[in-house]
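Troubleshooting entry. The earlier prediction with flavin-adenine dinucleotide gave an output that would not parse, so I re-checked the input for stray whitespace and re-submitted. Clean input:
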Amino acid sequence: MSERLESSSLFASIHRSLGRMDVVHEANRCLYCYDAPCTQACPTHIDVPAFIHKIRTGNLKGSARVIMEANPAGASCARVCPTEELCEGACVLNKEDVAIRIGDLQRYVTDWVREHDVELFQPGPPTGFRVAVVGGGPAGLSAARELARMGHSVTIYEAKSRLGGLNTYGIVPFRLPEDVALWEAEQVVKLGVTVHTDTAVGRDISPQELLTRFDAVVLAFGMGAVPRLGIEGEELTGVWDAIELIERVKTGKSIGEIGSTVVVIGAGNTAVDAATCSKRLGAEQVTMVYRRTEKEMTAYEFEYDFAKQEGVEFRWLSAPTRILGEEGRVRGVEFIRMRLEAADDSGRPRPVPIPGSEYVVEADTVIRAIGQHRLTEVLQGLGVECRDGVIQVDERFRTSNPKVFAAGDCTFEKGRGEAMVVEAAEQGKVAAWSLHQQWSHMQRV
Amino acid sequence: MADLSIDLAGIRSPNPFWLASAPPTNSGYQVMRAFEAGWGGAVWKTLGDPIVNVSSRFAGLQVGSQRMFAMNNIELITDRPLEVNLKEIREVKKRFPDRAVVASLMMEPKKESWQELVKRVQDVGVDGFELNFGCPHGMSERGMGSAVGQVPELVQQSTEWVVEAAEVPVIVKLTPNITDIRHTARAAAQGGANAISMINTINSLMGVDLDTWYPVPHVDGKGAHGGYCGPAVKPIALHMVADCARDPDINIPISGIGGVSTWRDAVEYLLMGATGVQVCTAAMHHGFGIVEDMIDGLNHYLDDRGLASVRELTGRSVHRYTEWGNLNLEYKVVARIDQDACIRCNKCYIACEDTAHQCIDRVPQPDGIHRLVVREEDCVGCNLCSMVCPVDDCITMVQVDASKPAQTWREREMARIGGK
Ligand SMILES: Cc1cc2nc3c(=O)[nH]c(=O)nc-3n(C[C@H](O)[C@H](O)[C@H](O)COP(=O)(O)OP(=O)(O)OC[C@H]3O[C@@H](n4cnc5c(N)ncnc54)[C@H](O)[C@@H]3O)c2cc1C
Ligand SMILES: Cc1cc2nc3c(=O)[nH]c(=O)nc-3n(C[C@H](O)[C@H](O)[C@H](O)COP(=O)(O)O)c2cc1C
Ligand code: SF4
Ligand code: SF4
Ligand code: SF4
């Protein structure tokens, strides 16, 4: 496949462009429910009937404000939210008709506002309080925006060279182009937020220093790289961390030869993105291999459907035992078959290897997508309580240190929310509010 | 198949659907196309002394996704020479002898002018006349149209002149731009009209452009009031038809006009006393083809109800249309919600809570979802919730306390005065 073709399919959005007529018809179909279930189902509680009504009246600026006010990542979310599990899933029209395409309408409005350089928010009158935000992904940006609107002085420390977190680097470009994420970041920066990119807390500046220089710290550093599988052959050329692979692709860096056969280990969001990305990179056969079954996979329904549509194949109940290579390059993977036993502590059936059931599949590239590491170096000396590397927070996103708040993926643990952009945005927002609340009865000069 | 043919004061047509006098009946070419599509009759675009029309004449009203919910216009009567129109009317009538071809006329209020026009037009073989006393713009500034139609004496006088010269039935088309249409309807009857038709268009200003601040539509930056028609006017027209139908001093057939878009609208007009209907906006919105379902739907409706002829519908609901004082004050309905059909949009709740009588409760259920429950003892039966509910037949208004003897306000007042 020619290079140009490859890159065009990698960057061509899977979202079809929306005609004004389509949008207005869809908006007119919305019932303008009272205490609308779609709004309740949105983790950031966007007032969906209100923003849709504003499309109808031609008040797109007002509509964009409703969306972005509730959700500082509203433009990204319009593309990557699992809407059928959230707002659209709750739409009352599911019963008698089909749900309103809320995500599409939100995309239309946020695209409009991106194209029209409209100022939606202003910084608040200065309070004198200083906050450091660690991590410039959706959680950190959301916290920073709310804090800046309340007049606090905000500084974001971001390890990478650009803001946006996984929205900029981690989600495949054909689902979320980086300009959407960067526009959202720009809206926050415009409020007078100071940004130090290429600055990793724990490496370039110590966490304790933040505590002395700022009145409070919001931790929003997400999660780290994909862990190793812990099997033989992982050092071979052609073995990838899914997030690193996608980042290279999204930022236009070379990834060498992907080859014709790709095996992706895992069946979550990241695995789907890595698999579909591989397809678009030109791989002929891409197989996602998972140690449990279709039922237990963590990817959303729409992601699974999308992967199938893109021609990705699936192999269930298999776990890798070693990666085989030739001359330093991957040539195949040995798997062992699994069977499911009674539920483990994650509530899902526990996979158990079937002795002697090993088999080998050919592979030119192996991509691991089995979750993400926890970053703990940032926490050194902050006095923040953690469990298995996960920061413990209360419902107001306060940590055990009264000066430290945390939001987004760095607080994510099983059974507590979901690792999603929209959750990260909501948590950042609530963390900012609770910080503000804590200060609202204090004066500072 | 029921018999759809009607006879309006001697004007016969194979079905009750006529095109109203307006742009769709501007020329022989158009009327022939309409007849090919199935229209039962056509009232030709109003004939009269030559006029000049302005460019930029119409404007539409959009409600949600529904375009042409209404339209208005500042067009005048025909701008084509009378001879051309007459030649075409003759051709149409020759090709479609079974259809009703009615000539709409407008003249300055002079006996000779009216009678001369009547004679010329009569010669080409029209089945009837319709006198346009309704046009609310332009012509009225010249003492014609609604300038005549708003003064009962002038209506009667012009009608008498025409009836005197006419050998075919005469319909008088009434303007709605009057406080009580029965006065002009009675005058038309008095003047010898064989039938009345209503309504012509309603005075209106369609809108103002938010960018230019010009009226809509505008002619070189200025606008004038225009005639309003289309689905939005149907309730207004229907009430006028019904008022005339139940008036003992009118007693002549009615051709119902105003917002007829489907066979259903037509049935309502017939039930309220019309013999047939005329259509303008719906044809301008969709073309002549819409008559097909008007005929088809009406046919099925009549068959389903076991009626042999469309004529059996005329006037069947008129006796149920009365004064407020004759309504039963003891009749009581309350809203009842079908919980299985309800989609929990809460529209009924907020409508009743904010703008009616605060008697719908949102009752939480164990599954976390709430039910909408009407407190029947507080419900006044205003119908609002059932109107806003998006699901058909989800909220029904059911009668309660049916055992109480009926008493109208009039009866109550009589009893009160009598008791004193
Ligand atoms: C491949 C993939 C696909 C996904 N698809 C979806 C999807 O379709 N829908 C959805 O809702 N969610 C999806 N997600 C999840 C979503 O991206 C995350 O839940 C979300 O980005 C979390 O936001 P965050 O701000 O908490 O963390 P991140 O987005 O990870 O941002 C954290 C930021 O902190 C920075 N940082 C880390 N360490 C330091 C440090 N020491 N000092 C300074 N800065 C630091 C990082 O560079 C990063 O910019 C996907 C994730 C992946 C990996
Ligand atoms: C553009 C336009 C021009 C009209 N011209 C005439 C006319 O010349 N003579 C007339 O009697 N009525 C005229 N009418 C009124 C229609 O005949 C009819 O009474 C009115 O439109 C209501 O019917 P509708 O709701 O079906 O449109 C005109 C209406 C429109 C929209
Ligand atoms: S539930 Fe559906 S119909 Fe109701 S407000 Fe939300 S999007 Fe509109
Ligand atoms: S009928 Fe009127 S008063 Fe009764 S419940 Fe409905 S809205 Fe309320
Ligand atoms: S308006 Fe109708 S569908 Fe909506 S909550 Fe009320 S009863 Fe249910």
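This one parsed fine. Chain B has two domains: 6-320, 327-419.
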